[in-house]
Each structure stands twice: as structure tokens, then as C-alpha cells.
Specification:
alpha+beta
């Protein structure tokens, strides 16, 4: 299993827009083949207040590549991306893969 970690740098003044963006992703992610572990918003308790995360699991790299192809054609995914672009709530989006350490 691979876990895609998406780190977002968000506009603090548009965190409500980002939260709506995050709430619209579960169904398109599942429909396109990803296993969404969740979206995570920053808190004011510790750490940067402009960093949000999404974690999505895939069986392997081939499954992720297939997911990306299907996602680019999904109408809900396209609309959600357009809404985020219009609101400019996301300043930077970085992707990396994580591999779980066996216990």
C-alpha cells in the first residue's frame, strides 16, 4: 500500500472555502479508486496555521496512475478544482508518497 500525502498551503482568510473543498472530495475520490483516509485542517494550538493535509491510500503506483486518469474526467472533481481555483483558497499543493512502517 502507498499513501498519497497532499500538503496544502492555504490562505488563512479563506479557510472556510478550503473546508468546503475538502468536504466535496470523499465521493469523487472513492468513485475514482482512492481510499480517502481524510482531510486535516490546521489548528491554532500548535504548528503552522496555514497547512492542511489529505491522505489517500492506493494498492500500488499503478492504481494511483489509474485514479489520476479517471479523476481528470470526473465532473465533480473538475467542478471542485474549479471552485478552489476561483476562491484562491489554495496557495500551494505538494504531493508525496508515504509507506507505512510495519509494526
Amino acid at each position: 500500500m502507498l499513501t498519497l500525502c497532499i500538503r496544502y498551503t492555504i490562505d488563512l482568510h479563506k479557510s472556510a472555502d478550503f473546508e468546503q473543498y475538502a468536504r466535496r472530495w470523499p465521493e469523487p475520490v472513492r468513485r475514482c479508486g482512492g481510499d480517502l483516509l481524510g482531510y486535516f485542517l490546521p489548528t491554532k494550538f500548535a504548528g503552522p496555521t496555514n497547512a492542511a493535509y489529505a491522505l489517500i491510500r492506493f494498492k500500488n503506483l499503478a492504481a494511483y496512475e489509474q485514479y489520476r486518469e479517471v479523476l481528470t474526467k470526473d465532473p465533480d472533481a473538475i467542478a471542485n478544482g474549479a471552485a478552489a481555483d476561483a476562491s484562491r483558497c489554495i496557495l500551494v499543493e505538494d504531493r508525496s508518497f508515504l509507506q507505512r512502517v510495519p509494526e
